Amino acid sequence: MNIPGFDARTVDVAPGVALRTETAGTGTPLVLLHGFPQTRHMWRHVAADLAHDHRVVVPDLRGYGDSDKPAATSPDVYAKRTMAADVVALADALEIDRFALVGHDRGALVAFRAALDHPDRVSHLGILDVVPTLDTWAVLHGVDAAVAFHLYLMAQPPGLPEAMIRGSADAFFGSFLDAWTRDPAAVPADVRAHYLEASRDAVDSIVADYRATATVDVVHDQASLDAGDRLAMPVTVVQQDWGAQLGYDAAGVWRRWAPDLEHLTTTAGHFMAEEAPDDVAAVVRALGRRGLTASGAPATSSGR
To answer: Which of 4, 62, 121, 205 is most buried, by the most CB atoms less than 10 A from its CB?
Structure first.
């Protein structure tokens, strides 16, 4: 599925890996990265809005949607560091030097790593509804970890997770579209069918992406933390109130990574770019102007 008014192209970013990408608009460059179990199409409303005053770039991540899905011959193939390098290579191919980068869910983890590894390229960072990989494992304890059972399933050695998910792919991926959406109308039937088909065709690469989050990504995050690496650019994080639900200081988790932080909570569900696109677009526009939100937006500041 393509976003109306956007130009679609396939861009080589690494040997044997090309990303299907849509672009539109002129102005300050902005790259939007999708989450799970979705494709670039999750940005359709937000991207169309932002293209009025930005050059908007919306790719499918490696392993997802219409982008290439290389075999996971090593943990590094789907490391967030590798996927972040894809994003920088995409910007190079499009002759974009510096850009604002916004990611949702899995895309937010890629954006986080891109901002740490390439601070000269990422001018502003937007994060939707995740905590960094290292902190994800730290905040999930006991029965509260049940909300993220899929993380533990896909962390298992290759073979069994792929077989289990492939055997009930629509039920597995559809369960997240149902459980994480507060407004079911935000993901209409045709879009839901697209997400399910795209995920069904990418089981191996999706599992490899998640398996990296339990292995090599943890190593990379810990090394960055130990080295004192921090996000050098302004960072805006929008989350559901997971801190209150799971008993941790969500803003505090992000503050140790991001000295220049605006942390917001939303009453929308996980798929906020589809449930509250006007509000998300307003937050993205305000990345460099702290404290600005859309009138009536569900986002409220929880501190810097």
So the answer is: 62
